[in-house]
Design goal:
With about 210 residues, the chain is an alpha+beta fold. Helix content is about 25%, strand content about 40%. The protein is built from 6 helices and 9 strands; from the N terminus they run βββααβββαβββααα. Strands 3, 4, 5, 7, 8 and 9 form a 6-stranded antiparallel sheet that branches. The chain has a 3-stranded antiparallel sheet with strand order 1-2-6.
Length: about 210
């Protein structure tokens, strides 16, 4: 049965009520043998393929920190790892669509977070790679096979879906990770001036002429 299962990503949506920022991909799985698939213990590796779209001038400027100067993008525009998630596929015959929960990070030290925040709109080209174990009905009872490592699926994730997922938890906001000693100094500055975090950083930027 190895190699008989194929995958298609049919849609995506933000999860507004999740505990942390996340989105859901709808994954359609088809088996062409006509046998009953009892279950699939699936692992889905999700990558961003930055070569799969064009970039505006403003996007190019923001992504220079990630990929280097634009004249080098032919060498540096390499796939970015988004996440790897397990998916337990229930019993089906023929085809089934299952949700794939994708956690998101707003940490700008993470390459995928920097990529997402650098985009004005359009889509994010995703590549889904699969591995796992199939349990299916055979002549001798339950049999075991492997998901072919050659199977993959592509999806054009709207940037608006990612933004909706982030805004559900951090509306009009972002996160920057700081060293503990730097954070302590920022806390002290904020307390001494009795201002919000935004005002504290804004004041410091103005003092630096930025």
């Amino acid at each position: 049965m190895t190699g008989t299962v194929t995958f298609t990503c049919t849609g995506s949506r933000a999860e507004a009520y999740s505990a942390a920022p996340s989105l859901t991909l709808d994954l359609r799985i088809e088996d062409g043998t006509g046998r009953r698939v009892h279950a699939i213990a699936l692992r889905v590796q999700i990558r961003i393929d930055p070569r799969g779209r064009r970039y505006t001038d403003s996007e190019t400027a923001r992504l220079t920190d990630l990929f280097g100067e634009p004249h080098r993008w032919g060498e540096t525009l390499n796939p970015l790892q988004l996440t790897t998630v397990p998916v337990m596929v229930p019993s089906f015959t023929g085809a089934i669509t299952v949700p794939v929960a994708v956690p998101l990070s707003y940490d700008l030290d993470v390459a995928s977070g920097r990529y997402f925040t650098g985009l004005d709109g359009g889509h994010v080209p995703l590549v889904l790679l699969f591995s796992g174990t199939l349990f299916y009905a055979g002549d001798a009872g339950v049999q075991v096979g492997l998901v072919s490592w050659q199977e993959e699926a592509h999806h054009r994730l709207p940037v608006a879906v990612w933004r909706d997922a982030m805004d559900a938890h951090f509306p009009d906001a972002g996160w920057v990770r700081l060293r503990r000693d730097v954070l302590d100094r920022l806390v002290a500055y904020r307390s001494a001036h009795a201002v919000t975090w935004d005002d504290a950083v804004d004041r410091l930027l103005k003092e630096a002429g930025a």
